[in-house]
Amino acid sequence: MIRNGESGFIHTDTQALIGAMQHLLRDPAEARRLGEGARRTALERFHIDRFARDWDEALRYVCS
User: Fold this and answer.
1) Domain ranges in the chain?
2) What number of other Cβ atoms are within 10 A of residue 19's Cβ?
3) pLDDT tens for residues 14-61?
4) So which domain of life are we looking at (predicted)?
5) At 29, which helix (H) or strand (E)?
6) Using alpha carbons only, how large is the chain's radius of gyration in Å?
7) Under a CB-based contact definition with an 8 Å cutoff, are residues 8 and 34 in contact?
8) d(CA 64, CA 62)
9) The pLDDT of residue 12
């Protein structure tokens, strides 16, 4: 999941996305910050501990 301005840019307007990409090309520190935010989000959402916990909850629900 992309959080606008935290882990990337999302917009329905193509020109707005082009502008955001051009901004990131001019500002590598901002690009790095967004990349770090995206990495943090991925680690939180797809970490093996969360995966195991979610499956455990689902199986307990189905079997109860």
Assistant:
1) 14-63
2) 13
3) 999 999 999 999 999 999 999 999 999 999 888 899 899 999 999 999
4) Bacteria
5) helix 28-46
6) 17
7) yes
8) 6
9) 93
Say which residue the tokens 């979610």 belong to.
Answer: 54
22 burial type by CB count under 10 A (0-12 exposed, 13-18 middle, 19+ buried): exposed
The span from the CA of 42 to the CA of 34, in Å, is 12
Q: Would you give the DSSP letter of residue 5?
A: T
CA distance 43 to 12: 26
**9 closest CA partner among 63, 30, 29:** 30
Report the C-alpha gap between 7 and 38 in whole angstroms.
4
Q: What is the pTM of this model?
A: 0.68
